[in-house]
Amino acid sequence: MIDNLAAYHFVAIEDPDTVAAWLRALAEAGDLRGTVLVAPEGINLFLAGAVDAVDAVLDALRGDVRFAALQVKRSRSDALPFARLKVKVKPEIISFRKPEAMPLAAPARAPDVAPDTLARWIAQGHDDAGRRLVLLDTRNREEVGYGTFAGALTLPIDNFTELPDALAPHRDALRDATVVSFCTGGIRCEKAALWMRADGMDNVLQLDGGILGYFERVGGDGYDGRCFVFDDRVALDPALRPLQDGVAA
């Protein structure tokens, strides 16, 4: 059985090349495959392999004070969904190119909503203050095609950097709503929520842990379909089962 790890953390990294080399060594020691992204703003990991090898990487990361609060999502598959290990140093762990959306530059993390709370809001059709609820999908159109929250506002984008322009026509209609941004694992909806709040939309929250965190803690309540993932599993259902589970090429 293969353990699949998706994890990220926004934290200042003054030596991204050194951290990247360290993470490569950890992953190679456990014969893990996947993608590791390191930037001055933090880390983003997609790793797969034996459970004890994934545990060893997590133990090492959490032994470093910078990564002790790492956001982690785990799931299982029969086969490795990655063909090899890639480790990259980039300007951002997800490119958005909006300085006001940089978590390390913001005075505080964008307010979030827990999965169980969101499930309750979906069921009742409004938040606890009685405001109507709008779920904002910050992913691209290919991902949305595999599934999204029922009735979510989706945008015709192919890249995350296109979100601000695509959202512009909807802003007036969102003023009286509680808007919850969401994405696969939390990175994009966190940046999007920060940017929207900095740009005057103080009614925006982010879904803590993204769709995968919601599946882990709640299941599929209010969600239609699967969640696209960026590996050979293609997409996961609310029980975190892969759409495809073959051997990576």
Features of the shown structure:
7 helices, Oxidized Rhodanese, domain 1, Alpha-Beta Plaits, 249 residues, alpha/beta, 26% helix, 13 strands, 5-stranded mixed β-sheet, globular
- Low-confidence segments, given as residue ranges, are none
Largest pleated sheet:
5 strands, mixed
Report the structural category: alpha/beta
Mean pLDDT, as a whole number? 95
Using DSSP, what is the number of strands? 13
> Count the helices. How many?
7
| H/E element sequence | EHEEHEEEHEHEHEHEHEEE
Write the layout of secondary structure elements.
Blueprint: E1 2-10, H1 16-29, E2 33-39, E3 42-49, H2 51-62, E4 71-77, E5 85-89, E6 112-113, H3 115-124, E7 132-137, H4 141-144, E8 147-149, H5 163-167, E9 177-182, H6 187-198, E10 204-207, H7 210-217, E11 223-225, E12 227-228, E13 235-236
Parallel strand pairs: 2-5, 6-10, 7-9, 9-10
Antiparallel strand pairs: 1-3, 1-4, 2-3, 8-11, 12-13
Helix pairs in contact: 1-2
Give your account of this protein's structure:
The chain has 249 residues and is of the alpha/beta class. Helix 1 runs antiparallel to helix 2. The two termini are 18 Å apart. A five-stranded mixed sheet has the order 4-1-3-2-5. A four-stranded parallel sheet has the order 6-10-9-7. A two-stranded antiparallel ribbon has the order 8-11. Helix content is 26%, strand content 26%.
Brief synopsis:
The chain has helices spanning 16-29, 51-62, 115-124, 141-144, 163-167, 187-198, 210-217, and strands at 2-10, 33-39, 42-49, 71-77, 85-89, 112-113, 132-137, 147-149, 177-182, 204-207, 223-225, 227-228, 235-236.
